[in-house]
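[09:14] KT: can someone run the structure on this one? pasting the chain below
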Amino acid sequence: MIPSIVLLGNLLVDDVVLADGTTRMGQAGGALLYGALAAALWESRPGLISVLGDDYPAEALEQLQQRGADLGGVHSLGRPGVRTWLLYEGSVRRLIHRLGCPTHEEVSPGPALIPSEWSAARAFHLAPMPFDVQRALLTALRANESAFISVDPHRPVTEESLHDWRDALGDADAFFPGEDELLIDGALENPHKALPRLVNGRLRFVVFKRGAGGGILYDAHDERFYSWDARVAGFVDQTGAGDAFVIGFVLAHLDGLAIEASLQRAVVTASFAVAGWGPEAMLSATRADADARWRRWYGVEGSR
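[09:31] RB: done, structure tokens below
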């Protein structure tokens, strides 16, 4: 069976340190974990492609499968994988690989790991990985012109890297940088001027995630900007919120929702990610919970 959306990226073990000194060690993490749970929240069936270290918590993998995720594209590294420090300071997250781990490239999937039967999927999402890995995947997926392809960066977009990013993003439909990744001149002060500079080829959406500050979306097709405000029902841990937001938006767009409604559903999705430590709140949330929150926050029209 072909997944509803194919997620390519990492499943990592996280050691989280929040700004107030709170820590959570040895937590199952990685963008694919939160992306898959976001898809499951809306009753979509994600297929995961990754290279997995043998120290990744088995319980988390079992929970993903119970939620409907297809792990047919997850391959064993054969040794412990990457373990990261996630250090949060205000709106900035710093990710530091612990010493003695494999390289980020070693735990990131290349095109050869995409199951042949999944090549016809309607959507592919590239989670944060080294730039060369993401560019190779974009090149390989180029032939599937009907698929929606989204990218969440790991390498920052600077004035020096802007040319490389524009070249790569010509094969994508949506790009989701955050404040610590979009570093071209004027991005923070004047995003309305900065975001269109990224557009090339088929790229339609540039979605600038600003955490608690909400964000701005640029639709290159209509040359129009949309903004959103962040909302939470409770806040414990921001890990995974950006990943959940992205998948919430992509799936809503694929379901034919308008941009405003797609952003609303993305905000609702992210709100479940921050409500508990790691994936706890998303594991216990249901579609009914998500629909109820959407209606409560945005009104009946927004949930149609």
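[09:33] KT: thanks! The longest strand covers residues 46-52.
[09:34] RB: yep, looked fine to me
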